[in-house]
Specification:
Elements (H helix, E strand, L loop, with lengths): L12 H11 L2 H10 L12 H14 L5 H7 L5 H12 L10 H14 L3 H5 L7 H17 L7 H12 L2 H4 L13 H8 L9 H11 L23 H7 L64 H6 L7 H21 L19 H9 L7 H22 L46 H5 L11 H4 L1
Helix pairs in contact: 2-4, 9-12, 9-17, 15-17
The protein binds a DNA duplex (21 and 21 nucleotides) through helix 5, helix 7, helix 8 and helix 19.
Amino acid sequence: MERSPGAALTSSPEEEEEKAADGHGEEAVEQEDEEAAPVVLKKGPWTTAEDAMLVDHVRRHGEGNWNAVQRLTGLLRCGKSCRLRWTNHLRPNLKKGSFSPDEEILIAQLHAQLGNKWARMAAHLPGRTDNEIKNYWNTRTKRRQRAGLPVYPPEVQLQLALAKRCRYDDFSPLASPQLPGAANVQALDAASTGYTSSRPAPLDLARQLAATSQTAVQFLPPPPFSAPSSPWAKPFARNAQYFQFAHSSPVSPSTPTRPLHPATPDLSLGYGVRSTDQSRLAPLSPSPGPRVELPSNQFGQAMPPTSAAAAGGGGAALPDHQHQNAASLEKMLQELHDAIKVDPPSLAPANGDAERHGGGAVLERHGGRENKLDGQHRDDDMGTLFDMMIPRLNAAETVPVPLPPAAAAPNHSGSTSQHSSDDQDPSTVDLGVDLPPVAGGASPSDQDWGLDGVCHWSNMSRIC
DNA sequence: AAACAGACCAACCGCAACTAT
DNA sequence: GATAGTTGCGGTTGGTCTGTT
């Protein structure tokens, strides 16, 4: 193990650059090595001269053997630091700049599937580093949590809800056939990364649900990078509009576009809620392999029940597409009711389309089984799902729906820390659905989302 | 203009897995 | 198999930038 000996050198970058330029030749370091003198390694920001030395070293010797860099070049950096610098800043084909909207969506999906597996996520985002993704995610989740906004975009929330509904034990014996054309991150993960649990990741279950029931929850590739606006970091009203667009360019080689399934209802909930079948939501989980890693869920705090409403930016003056979204949600909810065979709370008028979906049998079978957990979780799950969806319906249809108290259990850990992440029981995965205190008679939707623009990212700083 | 807060970013630290001896 | 060295990963920290008061 390498430990940084001694105190870090503290001087200005200019000074360090000068030192690096004229002071640290190979001879000097070799001399030090011969004398076995302790080398005080430098810490802190890299100078351009150091970068040049490192680049030159990699050009000559290739990547790897990072501890030799200091020995061969005289660079007063530990191997770990060199590797980090190269990986995060110097290696070619790095993509700098802010994340595109589609990258943001993909990150959310990957995080929902993988948890805080930044390196694995980075593998699906060419040119991006794990550190970059990690910083991005932590910053935005912290901001969103503070604002009481959902951590995940609605489409991912829905998949999580489905996954939560379908407990692991219910599905573990089932095969998980790949959906048609589902070349995706999961396939890559399953093939190239190690899963460490014997149970499938939560989002696997949504896929299994989709495959088992004929309700066909479809998971499609993420949107391309050429979106005109950020669907997540921008006001949701605009998001919904954006996701009405049709795209075709692939995100990356690992997330190719795929043919759309013509007979598949769209369950993408907000980000891609369309009355058509054009959801591009990527498959979020591979077929359960021999080892399945459960996603860490470090977000103990849940989302407000109105989170889904944000996707549509619903409000008194709903644009047409948002009405469509609401109708689509309504239909989706009805389908889920039918599929899971749980009486929903009184909602908007039932949609007759729901009965044409024949997913109920299988789901009923699973839902009817006694779970390891107490029987309440079933209601909790549905409540969670309803909570995500109903407020949005409320916003669109002004149908008041009482929120199940079970889903209102807040968890205000308020931290994005990893401490609770990896050991959390995935069967109790928090969907990020939280119920902030609702004051007065206004609905959460009206209070929290869209109607007055408080959900806009630009307003975040003022919320708290 | 100054103070402050938040966002963003780069880098470090500790740990674990992997590999070579 | 044991040990040391190396690499990779994830969490955290601290500095800088930017917007707000």
